[in-house]
Amino acid sequence: MTQTSGIHKRQLAEFLRGCRGRISPAEKGLPDHHRRRTPGLRREDVAVLAGVSLTWYTWLEQGRDITVSADILERICTALEMSSDERDYLFALVQHRAPPLPAVADQCVSPALQRMLDSLNVPALVKTARWDVIAWNALVTKLFRDYSQLQPGARNLLRILLVDDPDFQADNETHRATARRVLSKFRVDYSQHSDEPSFAALIEELTRDSAIFRELWNSPEVINRSEAIAHHPQQGGMLFEHTSYVPEGSPTLRVVVFAPQDEATAQKLAAVASGLAESAAKTRAKAQQPS
Q1: Of 3, 59, 89, 231, which has fewest CB within 10 angstroms of its CB?
Q2: Phi and psi torsions of 136, nearest 5°
């Protein structure tokens, strides 16, 4: 545990006391002693539930400069039934960093995030750390591919780029550069989820089906950023500059946004977006007509 300031000590103590106070001993199968002066769990209850000594837990609440492992913090989070936001807050107070990524990656997006995608006038999608595409907007469907027509297991962007989509493999030089770039980023994502069987299954699948994956996968090159120029082979050779962002509250997801890289692409994109908006307006008007 790093040096804790006075403010952090008070925040930590108040936070842990608050978490203890909202849980009754009965909920945890503990005897409810009649001599309790305050509601909720006592420090010794939390120590027992988390598998630590009472002295150690008391020092933690007091903000003493003690060594606190991520494993012990996770056990305290479980004992105090913390939400994911509370877990983030505890790690920030104690270790001044975000907690380890959850073992099971997010597999869905919130309605608010989907509405944000739909409101953009550029293509945008959401992918998991395994590069499975789980959400997208209409411009992605129009310009790249209609993911709704693919089975969920076939929506993996790595497999699409390296195996399934012949358009991205037509130019060998471009395809090779794309493969190097995406695998450099995927190595970083894999390093954070290497214990998950789904990642091992994907690597085994790509090793079997992609010669370029077999050739490049063991390269030491890594890039912890998703920024590049993407050439769209259809729609008159449009050029997109894409980057990715972590949506708040979903650390294993990435929102990938494709912005036009030049004026010609911007004009073509505006025309496509206008056509989609007009079509959507007609559909809404037809739906509102009395039957």
Answers
A1: 3
A2: -165, 170
Q: Terminal CA-to-CA distance of the chain, rounded, Å?
A: 68
- DSSP secondary structure code for residue 208 in this structure: H
- The answer to whether residues 198 and 131 touch, using CB atoms and an 8 Å cutoff, is no
Closest to 165 measured CA to CA, from 153, 173, 155, 177 = 155
According to DSSP, the residues that pair with 244 across neighbouring strands are: 256
Distance of alpha carbon 113 from alpha carbon 118, whole angstroms: 9
Closest of 22, 21, 45 to residue 33, by C-alpha: 45
Domains of the chain, CATH where assigned: 6-95 (1.10.260.40), 111-287 (3.30.450.180)
In 3-state terms the chain splits into helix, strand, coil percentages (rounded to 5) of 55, 10, 35
- The sheet carrying 124-127 orders its strands as 133-136, 124-127, 254-260, 239-245, 228-231
State which amino acid sits at residue 1.
Answer: M
Which amino acid makes up residue 9? K
Instruction: State yes or no: pLDDT of 1 exceeds 50.
Output: no
| Cα–Cα dist 20/40, whole Å | 6
pLDDT in tens, 32-80: 665 556 678 999 999 999 899 999 999 999 888 888 888 889 889 999 9
- Going by C-alpha positions, the residue among 252, 243, 126 that lies closest to residue 198 is 252
Q: Across-strand partners of 127? A: 133, 254
